[in-house]
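TASK: fixed-backbone design
INPUT:
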């Protein structure tokens, strides 16, 4: 117990002959209900369950006393070591080699280090990390953007209110305090509600994320309270920091200018840029619009950030969707339908097939429309050094499916070769060329890992039919997958299978992919939300600009500018920002896409699924920035176009 650190969570430890402690995860433990249950061993001994325990190393399924173990006459032994040099896999391998020096060849059936177990425990959780990190960063940017826009809007729309406050005797610092308080109250309330919601969701998320290995107590209680403290303190601080710049504007605003609603004309960099643009051959409406962003450099930077964020999100979503669409078509590149054929089985309402397994395969190949046939048997096998059984798929027949599913190595070609997905290999510390011992019904076979699949169910591996024949020579439960030729009618083939033998049941496999649909849906929703937020940032900027330039718009209308021209000029003022914002947004989105697909963990996407960017797509991404800018600018632009000259110039 000292080396393995076994935790007894129900009952007591086995100290006498006839007692047994069962390895059972505390999340699924039956409590005291099954204590005292009698278990019979293959040798005929009867043991009483006196406790339930958990071992993170999964070194055993149960434990008994040394005296009881001797009475069971074990045929193999397991040794647990704790080495002084343990920080790297190389150090552990070297220490293990020294510890096993002198043992007969092939006597070491398997070995596993704590580093492998640590990686296995978090394998599935690590696949969520890129999504969670990326979305968290984008969420922080969105929060900062909203805070800056809201306070800036409050300052501009409250010019007269600021002037009145200062006329009544409020000091500049008190004005800053008023506007910071206006935002801090909803910010604190939002952070409290968000922290409570996050803690409530943490439990279910942890349960899903750590289902890769059945051990430990991954629960909300393991989350450090400092995370909640950081959210409660850090987010309001971030909001106040974003609000400080526009609040300082309110501090410096003279009372007379504020009360006059900011109608005094402004000079500076904006006018100089507009004069330079006016000297070009650009249409006057375009030159006036392009010069407007230079009058408020800080606000323009905020708008640019919103557009970059939107383009980054659209690029990321487009890349993920393209990757997942290609991933969902694996094995279906030719467009032919897939037919799943099962035998009668042992159910009372299903007739066993009259044909043998080889005869069924031959008949399926002979039916019109059949292109390839693949037989599959599924069994649970044990691997040496592991207490948990794994599912093994054994295949026979055409192996063209492997052409697009093997990302490293090659397909299995004999009884001593297996392939598996990245999650299975990670959890068991295996890589290409490593050997594993498979056991089924008392028979054993040593197999070499010769290939890695794009993905794989956890825990599961794939092997050839020759391997299955050695492990279970009498087994015959089989199912078949038939790939039809392009254009062949799937329903007609399924009816032909039913007519062939009443014990065969054919169904058309779903052409969709649940994982693809989930990622595409999630990416679409996330893109729509962040695009709307980016457009709202543009909306707020254009609204503020039109409010500040009411006098200029009134003068332009008085000399003949039409409402349609006002809309064109206003939209042009941000369309240029949209085009410029797309330039950094596209590479940021591409980097984010590669970061996500390279660190999924449970799926190893090949290069052709990652290289989804082409010139037409990149051009569309560049236009996405313009679309976001135009979408956000249309409403305030139309509002500015409807303003009358009299209402604008009444303060002059």
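OUTPUT:
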């Amino acid at each position: 117990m000292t080396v393995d650190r076994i935790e007894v969570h129900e009952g007591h430890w086995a100290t006498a002959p006839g007692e047994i402690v069962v390895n059972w995860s505390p999340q699924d433990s039956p409590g005291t209900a099954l204590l005292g249950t009698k278990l019979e061993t293959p040798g005929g001994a009867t043991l009483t369950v006196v406790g339930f325990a958990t071992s993170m190393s999964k070194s055993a399924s149960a434990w008994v006393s040394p005296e009881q173990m001797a009475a069971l006459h074990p045929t193999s032994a397991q040794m647990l070591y704790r080495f002084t040099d343990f920080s790297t896999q190389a150090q552990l391998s070297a220490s293990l080699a020294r510890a096993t020096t002198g043992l007969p060849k092939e006597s070491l059936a398997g070995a596993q280090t704590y580093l492998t177990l640590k990686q296995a425990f978090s394998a599935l959780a690590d696949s969520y990390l890129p999504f969670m990190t990326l979305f968290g960063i984008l969420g922080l940017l969105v929060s900062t953007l909203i805070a800056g826009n809201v306070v800036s809007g409050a300052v501009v729309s409250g010019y007269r209110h600021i002037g009145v406050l200062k006329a009544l005797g409020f000091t500049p610092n008190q004005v800053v305090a008023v506007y910071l308080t206006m935002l801090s109250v909803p910010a604190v309330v939002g952070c409290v509600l968000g922290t409570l919601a996050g803690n409530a969701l943490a439990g279910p998320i942890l349960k899903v994320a750590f289902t890769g290995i059945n051990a430990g107590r991954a629960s909300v209680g393991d989350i450090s309270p400092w995370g909640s403290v950081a959210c409660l303190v850090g987010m309001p601080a971030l909001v106040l920091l974003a609000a400080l710049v526009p609040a300082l504007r309110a501090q410096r605003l003279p009372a007379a200018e504020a009360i006059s609603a900011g109608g005094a004309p402004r000079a500076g960099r904006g006018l100089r840029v507009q004069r330079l643009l006016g000297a070009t051959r650009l249409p006057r409406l375009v030159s006036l619009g392009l010069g407007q962003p230079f009058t408020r450099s800080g606000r323009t930077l905020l708008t640019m950030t919103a557009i970059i964020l939107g383009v980054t999100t659209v690029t990321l979503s487009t890349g993920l969707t393209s990757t997942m669409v290609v991933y969902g078509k694996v094995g279906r590149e030719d467009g032919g339908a897939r037919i799943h054929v099962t035998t009668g089985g042992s159910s009372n309402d299903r007739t066993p097939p009259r044909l043998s397994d080889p005869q069924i395969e031959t008949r399926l190949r002979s039916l019109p429309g059949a292109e390839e046939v693949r037989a599959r048997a599924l069994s649970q096998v044990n691997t040496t050094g592991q207490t948990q059984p794994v599912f093994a798929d054994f295949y026979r027949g055409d192996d063209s499916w492997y052409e697009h599913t093997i990302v490293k190595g090659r397909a299995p070609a004999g009884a001593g070769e297996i392939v598996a997905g990245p999650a299975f290999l990670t959890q068991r510390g295996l890589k290409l060329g490593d050997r594993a011992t498979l056991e089924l019904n008392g028979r054993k076979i040593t197999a070499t890992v010769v290939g890695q699949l794009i993905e794989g169910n956890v825990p599961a591996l794939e092997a050839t039919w020759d391997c299955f024949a050695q492990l279970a020579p009498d087994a015959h439960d089989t199912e078949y997958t038939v790939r039809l030729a392009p254009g062949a009618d799937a329903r007609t083939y399924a009816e032909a299978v039913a007519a062939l033998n009443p014990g065969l049941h054919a169904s058309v496999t779903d052409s969709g992919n649940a994982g693809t649909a989930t990622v595409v849906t999630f990416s679409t929703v996330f893109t729509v939300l962040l695009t709307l937020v980016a457009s709202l940032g543009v909306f707020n900027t254009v609204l503020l600009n039109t409010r500040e330039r009411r006098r200029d718009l009134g003068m332009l209308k008085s000399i003949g500018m039409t409402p349609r021209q006002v809309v064109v000029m206003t939209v042009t003022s941000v369309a240029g920002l949209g085009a410029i914002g797309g330039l950094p947004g596209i590479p940021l989105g591409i980097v984010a896409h590669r970061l996500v697909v390279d660190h999924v963990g449970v799926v190893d996407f090949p290069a052709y699924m990652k290289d989804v960017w082409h010139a037409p797509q990149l051009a569309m991404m560049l236009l996405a920035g313009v679309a976001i800018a135009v979408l956000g600018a249309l409403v305030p632009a139309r509002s500015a176009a409807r303003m009358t000259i009299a209402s604008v110039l009444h303060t002059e």
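COMMENT: The CA atoms of residues 135 and 557 lie 45 Å apart.
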